[in-house]
Structure formats: structure tokens, C-alpha cells
Amino acid sequence: MDANYGVLIQNEPTSYLVARLAAFAAAPGFPNVRVFFIGANLSQNWGIDLPEEIAQVLPNRRSAAVWRLAQAIFDRRCRFIHIAGWGGSALHLPALLLILLSGKPFTMESDTPEMGERRHWLKALLRRAWLRLLFARALWLLPAGSPQARLMRNMGADPAKIHPSQLTVDVAAIRQRREAFSSEDRAQIRARYGVADADPVILYVGRLEPYKGVMLLLDAFEQLAAQWPNARLLVAGGGSLEAEVQARAQTNPQLIALGRVQPHEVMMLMFSAHMLAMPSRIEPWGLVVNEAMAAGLPVIASECVGAVEDLISDGVTGLIRPHHDAAAWANAMAQMARNPQLRAQLAQAADQRIAHWTLQDQARIFQDHWSPLLRGDAP
């Protein structure tokens, strides 16, 4: 007879989720799980070729997708279900209804904090009632971090059920690449973009959208560039503001617009820069913060970045500056640029912090909550 299993329902295969599944598979004694993704390339083109032995992407036709989930959930061998989030796709509602109808224990995760969205009072009331029901029925709530845990508490969840799951990236793999990255490699990357070895380099990685604070960063850098003619800002990413960023780069040789870059190139840029800037106005988490910390790159982030609450202590593991204050950002970048000792101190403290926020740590958290369910030991 086939082994019992748990069902995992995730949004889309991303690089960090595929790495997380690999960490699950490598963890000794990790529960047997069947993984279903609601879709592929929903938020962007991730370009991930997902082997079927790792996970399945559900069919595009909703009825077929619901049937596939129902077969897995109502199978007598299925002992628990885990679902990521409670909205964002047409499949979330039917999936959650299937879970509730099955009567089987389930857990939930979310990387969404409360971000002050304005809703019609009736929609807000219905949403709150729905979430309170889900949180009451869920056995465990495994939010990404502290901001998401606070949302769950504010929506009426029992605090005893809430155990943050430490959303992260493959810290160990990034550290290995960092150790293998030589000074010659660094010089080669910087030379590729016309950056001298002594030039202070600020790196931005992310979508070029208004909510990311990109234009504030460019304004802040203009203030810095007027005082530091050898400072460089490398902007990696694409989006609706890409043409505007390219136009600013044409008039300011200290600004280098890279467009979209591949993940392995992002790592090389991180190993070659002096600091990472993340000035988002809205950022549920911001895994680029985790990546930079693992890469040994000090971070300047806004207070709106979700990862800040758990990972960045201002002046200790990074710098936190207001998302609306370009002068404060210019001063922070100048502070980092002129003080290599500060950069080294922040990077070292950040490295120590991220060392306890790895995929292996995350796998242990999930394993601790799922293993008893697979054995039928639900409390």
C-alpha cells in the first residue's frame, strides 16, 4: 500500500520555492508530500522547468484543476493539507472550500502583511469573517515572519497557533558562491560596467515600478552623485519605469541601467557592490534582502519592507530609512560610501543574523508541524 502523504498547495514555482522543496527533500525524515502549484509564471516569467517528480502545475482549466486537487485531498492516504495564502487566484476559494469540506487538519502560510489597503466596508467585513473562519479551523498558522504574524493576530487568530516559518532563500548556496568569488572575479565584473575598483557602488535589484520607490532612489542618488563624482548606482530590473530609468542614465553617467538580469548575474553584482538599496513603499517581504545578507552585502531598506522587522536592526545589521525622504537616503548612501569599516560591521552582523534564517531552518519548522499530522497525531 502506498505511503500516507500531505498535500501542499503553492501559488507558482519560483526559484526560492523550488530551492525550498529541495531542502524539504534533503531533510532526514521529512514528511512525504505531494506539491501542487496553482499556476506557472503568474507574477513574472521565472523560466523554471519543473520536474513532475518534484511537483505538479495544476491544469489551466479551473474545473480540471479543482478535480485534481479533490482527488489528492479526499484520498484516504492524505493526512493533512498545507496551503499558501487565501487569495490572489481563482483557485484559492475552491481549494479552501475543498480543504474545509474534507475535515482534515490543515496549515496555512502567508507572506502578506496588512499594508493599509482601503476596502469597501462590506468587503472588509466579509474578508475579516472569512479569515477568522479559516484561522479558527486551521491547525497551525505558519506566516513568513513577524509582520504576517501580526496580521493574523489582528484578524482574530489564536496566537498559540501562530509560528513564523522564516521565509528565506538558499543561504548556504549563496555563501558557497560568495566564498568561491575571487577578487579577480570582482574586478572583472566591475570592469564590465566601467566601474573602477575604488568607486563606491550602490546596487538596486527589483522591478522598476512606482511602489518600489525607484524614482526616490534616483533622486537621492543625484544628491549623492553631486558630492561623490565616482559613486555608481547599478539598477537591475525591468518594469513600467524602465524607459524613464534608461533616460536618466543617458544624462547621468554615474547611473548604470542594466535592465533585466539573470539570477546568477544578480549574485555576481551583489558580490561586486558595496551596498544594496531597497526603498520600497510597498514590499510584503523582499527576498532580495535575504540574498544580500547571505552575499555579505550591507542593506539600506525602507521601513515598508516586510523583511526589515525580522532581519534588519538599524545600525546593526543594516540601515533603515523612511521611504519618503530622499535626503535621508542620500545621507545613508554617503555614510556607507565613506566608511568601509561600517560596511564591514553591518555585513558581518547581517551574515550572523541570516545564518539562523536558512532553508534548513525553515524545513525544520515545517517538519515539526507536519510530521505529527502524517502520523495521525494531530492535537
Which features characterize this protein?
379 residues; alpha/beta; Rossmann fold; 2 domains; Glycosyltransferase_grp1
SSE blueprint and pairings:
Elements lengths: L4 E6 L4 H12 L6 E5 L18 E2 L4 H13 L3 E7 L7 H11 L3 E4 L11 H17 L2 E2 L4 H9 L16 H10 L2 H10 L8 E5 L8 H14 L4 E5 L5 H10 L3 E5 L3 H10 L2 E4 L8 H8 L4 E4 L5 H4 L7 E3 L4 H13 L1 H15 L4 H16 L5
Parallel strand pairs: 1-2, 1-4, 2-3, 4-5, 5-6, 7-8, 7-10, 8-9, 10-11, 11-12
Q: What's the number of domains?
A: 2
Low-confidence stretches: none
What's the gyration radius in Å?
22 Å
Q: Give the helix level as a range of percent.
A: 40-55%
Read across the widest sheet, the strand sequence of neighbours is 3-2-1-4-5-6
SSE order: EHEEHEHEHEHHHEHEHEHEHEHEHHH
CATH topology call of the largest domain? Rossmann fold
CATH superfamily membership of the largest domain: Glycogen Phosphorylase B
According to DSSP, the number of beta strands is 12
Structural class: alpha/beta
Approximately what portion of the residues adopt beta-strand conformation? 5-15%
Mean pLDDT, rounded to whole units? 93
Name the CATH architecture of the largest domain. 3-Layer(aba) Sandwich
Morphology:
elongated
CATH C-level of the largest domain? Alpha Beta
Q: Kindly report how far apart the N and C termini lie.
A: 26 Å
